[in-house]
Amino acid sequence: xxxxxxxxxxxxxxxxxxxxxxxxxxxxxxxxxxxxxxxxxxxxxxxxxxxxxxxxxxxxxxxxxxxxxxxxxxxxxxxxxxxxxxxxxxxxxxxxxxxxxxxxxxxxxxxxxxxxxxxxxxxxxxxxxxxxxxxxxxxx
Length: 140
Known about the structure:
This protein has about 140 residues and is mostly beta strands. About 10% of the residues lie in helices and about 50% in strands. It has a single domain (about 1-25, about 50-130), classed as Elongation Factor Tu (Ef-tu), domain 3, CATH 2.40.30.
């Protein structure tokens, strides 16, 4: 059992804890490899480092007074155009989930919908992509 939180970075440190864990948590890591076609050899690959991790979460915000607040919070984070922090911890404290993630991510996709007969409940899919700081190095 684990707990998933999405937290705004400074200056505000507001956060949400997802009320319902997804049935599965998908993590994709694609290598940053270069592919080439050479005349006499054919296809070759040059190994690169690990690419950015992508986390996909699909779950539900249950039908209650708070469900719209979760949607609004995530839409607000997406509109900020800034990294957020993904925190996944072992809720039971017994290390049974083996997940311990605390890293900056960018919300890449947030889709949600209501289904007939389940008014007020929002089913959603969220893609979060690892964020790495970068920029020019200042040499003094």
